[in-house]
Amino acid sequence: MANSPTSAVPDSEAPSTAGLDGRHAWRDRNRLAVVDALLDFYAEGNLRPGAQAVAERSGVSRRSVFRYFEDLDDLDRTAIARQQERVRHLLEVPDIGQGPLHSRIENLASQRAALYTAIAPAARVSRLRAPFHPVLAEELALSREHLRRQLERQFRPELDRLPQHSRAFLLAAADVTCSFESFDLMQATRAWNENEIQQAMAQALLAFFGAQSEHAPGKP
């Protein structure tokens, strides 16, 4: 049995005489049990478990799975949103844009490596499903835009020293380097752990932005 944080209430114990609030609480608890069961499958590398497998792991009936969710795409979308909520504390860079370049590089690389490690299973699903699911595609685009703007704020002093076209190229290169796709590729092809990938990102960012720092006004 998976170590899901939510335990389902067996269908046979559904409140028949409780008030409306009790029914809603029972339904919400079972919905979360289904979602957490799916996230457990994601974490184990099973990115498309069947409805019956999800039902068995969550402790509800297969019929109930489709009573709580329109279809498996709806369940995928809800699971990804739940995963994002779990890692909300990892979404922001501490003291963004503050401090010397080396500190900003370390903070950004550390935040990205920790975030991607936490979201990896759901992130893979969202990328697999996005081409066939407009809502997931939109959410993925918003997430990528948030991370790009975060990077821009973190290295604004260096970027502001460049002409517009050079700034755009440098930001794009840094954005790709610090993306989930790069993280996933380094894990898959290098078998690197979180700390090794963090170091690789930091080295690349230093190569990108260190030259700008060296040529800052007032430097010899």
Summarize the model shown:
This protein is mostly helical and 220 residues long. The chain has 10 helices and no strands. The chain is 70% helix and 0% strand.
Which residue ranges are poorly predicted, with pLDDT under 50 across at least 5 consecutive positions? none
Count the E strands. 0
Order of helices and strands: HHHHHHHHHH
- Arithmetic mean of pLDDT: 86
Query: How large is the radius of gyration?
Result: 22 Å
Helical content stands at over 70%
Task: Sketch the major β-sheet.
Answer: none
Tally of alpha and pi helices:
10
Please state the overall shape, judged from the principal axes of the Cα atoms: elongated
Oligomer: single chain
Class from secondary-structure proportions: mainly alpha
